[in-house]
Write a structure and sequence with these properties.
This protein has about 300 residues and is of the alpha+beta class. The chain has 9 helices and 12 strands. The strands form 5 sheets. It has a 3-stranded antiparallel β-sheet, with no helix packed on it. Helix 1 (about 1-10) packs across helix 8 and helix 6 (about 200-210) packs across helix 8. The chain starts with a helix and ends in a 7-residue tail after the last strand.
């Protein structure tokens, strides 16, 4: 199954109705890349631009409303949805162009050593459907590495929910506001994505297919087309859903197979790291279920330096 998933991962999806497309049709109408590998090249993390210029594939612009009322999840932009799509099928206008401009910020460390930082500025032009809403927040995101995501999937939910001792109870309550969701009558804990908004590798994969490639699945059966994007909504689709569930499962199996290197017992974190409070969020140790079929299940430890929240 993992081999099939690797093939799907590297497949260039094509528009619905393409002759001979078989099961890899359904791209768009709005998208950022035609394949998983376009952003996660070889399953590695995408790289930002080396110099000022057009944003490279693998750097997407997520959109989220700011100032969300308590108790409600943030929404995307009313005209552009959850992700700004820079590509589109013929007959559909792309949502925008994204350009990165760098400026230099110079300074000195307390010991007098000079430093120079590159500060990026993201320019969004050629908006195809009107201005962004004033309350929309622009969130640049680089496609992350997929190596080791299988270990993060094996962290027990109780280890994510329970705050470490280094975190004060009041602080713990403020974390993970959007880190869980209800499905089939039960609450699932978020563990992947920005602020733990995805509850599993499959959930994260299906979101990427729908938002970044315009390929719908059983989990996310509708394209990220808003009411303002009439041509996008009217475009022919490649079925409901466009990608069969078994191919999504194969993509997940491929990612879960990227476990190298295996877990090893992490050494103790730097004492200063702990004393400053960094370990409260960047947790140096998390347990993983190394053998779910064992009785009792065998536990090992990883050093992710994250609380998955």
């Amino acid at each position: 199954e993992a081999r099939l998933g690797e093939a799907v991962f590297n497949t260039l999806f094509v528009p619905a109705g393409t002759p001979g497309a078989a099961r890899h049709s359904g791209l768009g109408p709005l998208f950022d890349a035609p394949s998983c590998d376009e952003c996660h090249n070889g399953a590695a993390q995408a790289r930002g631009p080396a110099a000022s210029g057009p944003a490279p594939t693998g750097l997407i612009i997520a959109l989220e409303e700011a100032q969300v009322p308590p108790g409600r999840r943030p929404r995307g932009d009313p005209r552009y949805g959850l992700v700004l799509s820079t590509e589109a099928l013929p007959g559909v206008a792309p949502e925008a162009r994204v350009t990165v401009r760098y400026s230099a910020r110079r300074g000195r460390y307390p010991d007098g050593t000079r430093f120079t930082l590159r500060v990026p500025r993201y320019l969004i032009t050629h908006l195809g459907y009107g201005p962004l809403a004033p309350r929309t927040r622009i969130e640049p995101r680089l496609a992350p590495s997929l190596f080791g995501v299988g270990w993060l999937a094996r962290v027990p939910a109780v280890a994510i929910v329970a705050p470490p001792q280094a975190r004060a109870p009041a602080t713990a309550a403020s974390f993970g506001t959007f880190s869980a969701r209800w499905r089939a009558g039960r609450e699932e804990v978020g563990r992947l994505g920005w602020q733990g908004t995805s509850v599993s590798v499959r959930d994260q994969t299906a979101k990427a297919l729908e938002r970044d490639m315009g390929v719908t699945s059983r989990e996310y059966p509708r394209d990220d087309c808003t009411a303002a994007e009439v041509a996008c909504r009217a475009r022919a689709h490649g079925g409901a859903p466009e990608i069969p569930s078994e191919l999504v499962a194969a993509l997940v199996a491929y990612q879960l197979s990227l476990l190298r290197p295996g877990p090893a017992t992490p050494g103790p974190p730097d004492p200063t790291f702990v004393r400053l409070g960094c370990a409260a969020c960047h947790r140096p140790r998390l347990p993983v279920t190394a053998c779910s079929g064992c009785s009792p299940p065998r536990r090992e430890w990883i050093a992710p330096y994250t609380d998955l929240r």
